């Protein structure tokens, strides 16, 4: 059963809810990845390269700002997003036939 952290009184409840949140995060990552796959298709039709540095900076800056807005360490989450971006660019390069 979904609880807030403050509602949890045992480590079992904490672990159950961390697992619940992790599962929800994976569903969101899958949704995010569906957009990456579609972006590769659209980029192929428009001749846009996989790596667009201005967009990479924008997404990283957004991650930092969004993390801070939630009281989280912006630099830490920006680095996580950097890895997500790097993985997405590698996928898109493969799909676009880029060296």
From TrEMBL:
> Which Gene Ontology BP annotations are present?
chorismate metabolic process; salicylic acid biosynthetic process
Q: Which Gene3D superfamilies match?
A: Chorismate mutase
Please give the InterPro entries that the UniProt record associates with this protein.
Answer: Chorismate_II_sf, Chorismate_mutase-related, CM_dom_sf, CM_II_prokaryot, Isochorismate_pyruvate-lyase
The superkingdom listed in its UniProt entry is Bacteria
Residue stretches in coiled coil: none
An example of a Pfam family matching this protein is CM_2
Q: So what EC number does this one have?
A: 5.4.99.5
* Residue intervals passing through the bilayer: none
EC class, as a word, reads: isomerase
Q: Which UniProt keywords apply?
A: Isomerase
- Protein's name according to its UniProt entry: chorismate mutase
Q: Which organism encodes this protein? A: Shinella sumterensis
């Amino acid at each position: 059963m979904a609880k807030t952290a403050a509602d949890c009184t045992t480590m079992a409840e904490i672990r159950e809810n961390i697992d619940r949140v992790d599962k929800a995060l994976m569903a969101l990552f899958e949704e995010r990845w569906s957009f990456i796959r579609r972006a590769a298709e659209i980029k192929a039709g428009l001749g846009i390269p996989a790596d667009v540095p201005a967009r990479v900076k924008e997404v990283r800056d957004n991650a930092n700002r969004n993390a801070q807005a939630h009281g989280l360490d912006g630099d830490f989450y920006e680095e996580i997003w950097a890895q997500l971006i790097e993985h997405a660019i590698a996928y898109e390069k493969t799909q676009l036939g880029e060296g």
